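Let's practice the habit of predicting before peeking. Look at the sequence and jot down your guess about where helices and strands might fall. Then scroll down.
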Amino acid sequence: MFGPVVNTAAILLGGLLGLISGRVLPARMKKTVIQGIGLSVLLIGVNMALETKNSLTVIASLVLGGLVGEWINIELRLEQLGTWFERKLSHVRGAGNFSKAFVTTSLIYCVGAMAIMGSLESGLKGNNSILYAKSMLDGISALVFASSMGIGVLAAALPVLVYEGGLTLLAGLLQGILSPDVIAEMSATGGLLILGIGFNILEIKEIKVGNLLPGIFFSIPLTILFTHLHLGA
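Done guessing? Here is the structure:
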């Protein structure tokens, strides 16, 4: 669990530094930096999405994941949690944009190959190197996001701890089924979700990425099934 804890601490530290620096940076500079982050997120998503060896798996994963996600309405739950925090911190400067900052950064930090693979490596082998590298990246991005989006970025550390910590603890149970093909399709599905986050950041198109999150986990049984049936696209 040490890796997830370090990642959580990095987001908190970067976010705090961002809140401090955000008071001196002009609005136009913050906007430009956020646009740069948005473009970078698109690049990461494209690279991950291209890892797929079977696009049919990714398509089916997102369809089934979207159905389940909409039924649960994950996006609404995240927004409600962000709004609850926002009310509790209404007296704190920068809390007005809390919900958007919380939802956006929570998804960015949790939906990705480094979060998944880092947690699995930590749980299976006790190797935290991926999560340490992710911690550096997340800490820097938290600084940038918090400087422009406010205190909601710090709250994103909580779902990161729960998500990565949970994957780390469950890694032992998944050891027998996480083949390279399964990992590739999980990463590719997550890559498309990251692309969606990039579109949201750049305000190109509002996509309910949270409601598509279950698709990452549907990719596990679907990869095994399609491989067994020799189905591919």
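How did you do? The chain has a mean pLDDT of 82.
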